[in-house]
Amino acid sequence: MLTGKEKRFLRSLANTMEPIVQVGKAGVNESVLFSLQEALQARELVKVRVLKNCLDEVQDVAQELALESQSELVQTIGRNVLLYRPNPEKPVIELPTK
Fold first, then answer.
1. Coil, strand, or helix at residue 46?
2. Of 11, 17, 22, 6, residue with least CA distance to 79
3. What is the pTM of this model?
4. Distance of CA 28 to the CA centre of its chain
5. 46 and 65 Cβ atoms separated by less than 8 Å
6. pLDDT band at residue 50, thresholds of 50, 70 and 90?
7. Cα–Cα distance between 12 and 85 in angstroms, integer?
């Protein structure tokens, strides 16, 4: 579970990021989850865009993505979702200490 300070730090890092993964008409499927897993492994912090043609609610998609990828939901703004999962072998992002 991330603290408020850690979430604030991650949101500041994601401010200039572009969405890497997109959830479209098919919703959360295997290919989306595979892309998300690969991106989380490489970057740890991933911005996901839920396209307008997705039939599911953005909050539902965000919760499902976080659950399926074993990541932390940092933020949901509009149709963008921010997910974080630390890489145990090669950490890229160093969170601020408490």
1. strand
2. 22
3. 0.93
4. 13
5. no
6. very high
7. 16
Cα 41-60-56 angle, rounded to 5 deg: 110
Element of type H or E holding 73: strand 72-77
Distance between CA atoms of residues 34 and 21, nearest Å: 10
Residue 96 has pLDDT above 80, yes or no: yes
Phi and psi angles of residue 77, each rounded to the nearest 5 degrees, phi first: -125, 120
Identify the pLDDT of residue 98.
61
Taking CA atoms, 51 is separated from 7, 22, 61, 64, 84, in Å, by 24, 7, 11, 16, 20
3-state secondary structure 77-88: ECCEEEEECCCC
Judge residue 83's burial from the number of C-beta atoms within 10 Å of its C-beta, 0-12 exposed, 13-18 middle, 19 or more buried.
buried
